[in-house]
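Subject: mismatched residue count in predicted assembly?

I count 507 residues in my input, but I want to confirm that the predicted structure covers every chain. Input:
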Amino acid sequence: MNVLSDHFAEFREGFLGTVELTASSALLALVLGILIAGFRVSPVPVLRAFGTVWVTLLRNTPLVLLFLAVTLGLPALGLKGWDSFWLAVLALGCYTSAFVCEAVRSGINTVPVGQAEAARSIGMTFTQTLGQIVLPQAARTAIPPLGSLMIALAKNTAIASGFNVAELAALQKQLNADEGYNIYVIFLWIALCYLIITFAISGLFRLLESRLAVAR
Amino acid sequence: MSANVLYDAPGPKARIRNRIYGALSVLAIVGLLAFVVQRLDSTGQFQSGLWEAYEYTDTQNRILDGLVTTLKTFGIAALLSLALGTLLAAARLSDHAPVRWAATVAVEFFRAMPLLIMIFLLYAAFFTNDPMWALVIGLTLYNGSVQAEIFRSGIKAVPQGQGEAARALGLRKTQVMAYVLVPQAVRSMLPSIISQLVVTLKDTALGFIILYEELLFVGKAFAQQTEPVNGVYAFIPMVIVFGSIYILLCLALSGVATWIERRTKRSRKGAPPAPPVALDLGTGGSGVVNP
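Triage response: the counts match. Full output below for your records.
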């Protein structure tokens, strides 16, 4: 009575579902987060305020509530027919973007002041200073916290199980409900799947860190 | 580097340009908000019928009950997780290697598991009829492990001379810990501890998924029971009302953390607050690099 061999196809599907969900939301979170971090240090006060409100709101909302807001709210806004997978990506991506923004911003704070001053003194504009001088250096210090955030994101994808997305936690819930399997065995296999994903992410980020390391 | 190092003090041209950008972004943001409000209005979300239920005392009492349940769950989970955190931190700093290893394995395991997976296990294995304890114990195991790491890094951050001086005076190791290290560590780690409590508070909403009657569940049940007005269900008003409650609760708790952080910075006696341990996403989101 081996759960894994009996339900191998479901396990594969759930595993791939979690991986896809993590990857898509990570991409959205990184793009949005870096953009909002740019807003928060920009010379335009309105954009700075927008960034602050975005981060404050999203950091203080439970992720489950955000999922509810997205799944129930978007159809009302006229965006009907979205797949539950993409709704989950939207919720997870927006939520994580607030944390990515803060990680990038504290990365920006570690770049020596002289770098930006030198860039300005040769006549670079704000966008050039930020994009070509400061962000590439900030990215290097931001990589370890970003890695932790991506691991946290992978774990947070479990919440999508409550919202009709086929992934590992949903599979666990379904198998738990099926009679006849030992729930601890199910838990162990599911846990192992998550461990593989989080190990892969932390390995990837460690590789990035050593590849991008610079002497300071 | 503070933000204003990134750009020069604006001259006349730059000031005009910044104002144009400012006006454009105001337009974009207001446009987006207007679009949302207009869409909500045209799909009939602002019909009074959907909102007036919130004026009834009965409804308000039900929301209050949900709030009390959430706060109760949070309170128990917070206390238990602080207790577990203390225990695990003490074990990880123990002089006996087996105790240290056991605690390390426990901490790393519970931090690496998605909280919801733990809750599903507890729910299916022990607490099918009592989801509250599945939630509380899940929250305790996860947040306790994270708190343990916060305590431990706080104790590690106390200057070495403190412990050495205490030992030189002849204090036993329990005394060194209790009278010298812990009071200073707690002082410097209080902001991080409270931020983790905010995470605990947010994560009580996970009870929604295992059908535990906390605040969010009450909200959804409530929205489902409200009679649809002209074919529109009361879900959006629910999200707006209950979202505000959650955000206010969390902001209040984070406010306490910021206030304490500022007070500790001002004081000359204590150790300065250590930098936050790790960015925490909540819901199984600790700053784990090595799961």
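Chain B touches chain A through 64 residues (CB under 8 Å). Marking this ticket as 'not a bug'.
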